[in-house]
Fold:
Amino acid sequence: MTQDLLEEVANLSYVLFRVAETIENDYLRDRIKMRSIDLIESSMLRSSEEFLNHSGILRQLVSLAYKLNHITEKNKNIIVDKIYDFEYVLIPEERGSFNAETVFTSYSEPEVVDDDFDIALNEEEEVFEDEIVEEDTSIIKENNSAINNSAKSDIDLPNDDVAKEDEDSDRKRSKADVRRDLVLEKVKKEGICFIRDLMASFPDYSERTLRYDLESLIEEGKIEKIGNSGPGTFYRSL
Structure:
């Protein structure tokens, strides 16, 4: 990982800690915090395998927190998408020779935008009730800023700027968002879609990443899985 990407990992861990503070379940809160630290340690050690293990567990813990109504769906989606982006960079068969930093920052392609962790807190999540971030921060643009300044979350609270934030969020689409939309379109087009169909249509993505996308689409209620993960298993849109 480059220094910029290491700082992005610190940014992600910072946000995970902030969101974890709103979780009432002590065990789940502590597990998310612990895995957030593991994420930083594995990135500093340049251990892609360990990072992917920790990130996979974090995705499941965050999804569990959402299902238990500890965090909002918006928070869950933003954090999980960011984790998917890191996994996309670190999976060797996908990384190839492209510049990994462009997954997070690309100013020439509108569909790839700096992720600022547009975290939305529900009424029960009172930790950040009085905090409003006034500036757009980017780890890549603010390399000289301290992590606790450059890693600020955009807290989506009830105020006069809600409409503007909603409009801005439509333009903040991560690489994972774009990829999942393409997978969803393929499933809808096929009617009955096997994993081999997706692998043939998206040769640049690994089977592991495509399964991540399918899992996410299932959680969002957009597709369903028919079968027990054997060769006859297929997916169809809802």
Observations:
- Residues 48-67 form the longest helix (20 residues).
- Residues 93-172 have pLDDT under 50 and may be disordered.
- Residues 3-169 form one domain.
